[in-house]
Amino acid sequence: MSIRRTLQIDEIVLHLPPPTEMNIQWIGQEDAVRQILAAWMVVEEKDLPLNPRIVGRPGMGKTTCAYAAASRLGKPVYLFQATMDTRPEDLIVTPVLGPQQEIRYMASSIVAAAVNGGVCILDEGNRMSEKAWASLAPLLDHRRYLESMVTGIKIPAHAGFRFVTTMNEDASTFDLPEYIHSRLQPQIYLDFPQEDEERAILKQNVPFADDEILGYVLAFLTRAHEADQRYSVRDGINIARFAMKLVLREGASSEAAFQTALRLILGEEAFPYASI
């Protein structure tokens, strides 16, 4: 598939970023991937793909899940990280000074996905304000275009374009209005993986971890999940990785290394869930 790096509309030349390359593998919760792929299907000529949102606590693997689904389509994947400071123009086109002091129009990864028929993953979308989301509204309904106020052009989306956003369940997010949520359907919820899935995820991400360290981490995660605590497998990966570094560099015992890693990564408040 040919990927454009520039696009000319009228007299305006847009410079497009490259796709995002991630060396990751999704483990477990296969239903979520199937649901994303079903949402992206086009059944007939008048049908349109849906724009799912993946919701869950931080560290559930929402971005990994979205990337895994996108990769199965064989399309280029573009990642845009939303923040509370994201402005409408950040989502579409930003003018910058080129090497010869000329104005160059740099398109966002969302625009690149749209014109190349790729997949856009808008990460942590509910950290973004309504004003920023409003600039994407025409892209996410039957109109399927973006409008740049900076350049005065409309940018139509390729028929193959697909969109997904991830959203964290925490307090540091905006409440989005109904007209935005109605464009971000269906909602796909990710919960904590099963214990065997967490073990496989830990082994994949920390292949040098020994079984004793993995046992401590898995026991901690299991107890934390049962208590409905926020600690995720991402925390477990960081604990296992740091603990093994302490074992290999300082000769610490597995138990001591795990305790040190738990304290320095999650703090003393995590210790009630450690089964040591």
Give a written overview of the molecule.
The protein is α/β, with parallel strands linked by helices. The chain has 10 helices and 11 strands. The strands form 3 sheets. It has a 5-stranded parallel sheet. A 4-stranded mixed sheet has the order 1-2-6-5. Strands 8-9 form a two-stranded antiparallel ribbon. Strand 5 and strand 6 form a beta hairpin. The longest helix has 18 residues. The radius of gyration is 21 Å and the shape is elongated. The N and C termini lie far apart (53 Å).
How large is the share of residues in beta strands?
Answer: 15-25%
As residue ranges, the low-confidence spans are none
Q: First CA to last CA: what distance? A: 53 Å
Which strands sit side by side, in order, in the main sheet? 4-7-10-3-11
Q: Quick check: average pLDDT?
A: 94
Number of discrete helical segments: 10
The amount of helix comes to 25-40%
How many DSSP E strands?
A: 11
What Rg do the Cα atoms give?
21 Å
Structural class: alpha/beta
Largest sheet: 5 strands, parallel
Q: In sequence order, what are the helices and strands, one letter per element?
A: EEHEHEHEEHEHEEEHEHHHH
What's the overall geometry? elongated
Question: Keyphrases for this structure?
Answer:
alpha/beta; four-stranded mixed β-sheet; 276 residues
SSE diagram, text form:
Blueprint: E1 6-9, E2 12-15, H1 30-40, E3 53-56, H2 62-72, E4 77-81, H3 88-91, E5 93-97, E6 103-107, H4 109-116, E7 119-123, H5 130-134, E8 145-148, E9 153-156, E10 162-168, H6 178-181, E11 187-189, H7 195-205, H8 211-226, H9 233-250, H10 254-266
Parallel strand pairs: 2-6, 3-10, 3-11, 4-7, 7-10
Antiparallel strand pairs: 1-2, 5-6, 8-9
Helix pairs in contact: 1-2, 7-9, 8-9, 8-10, 9-10
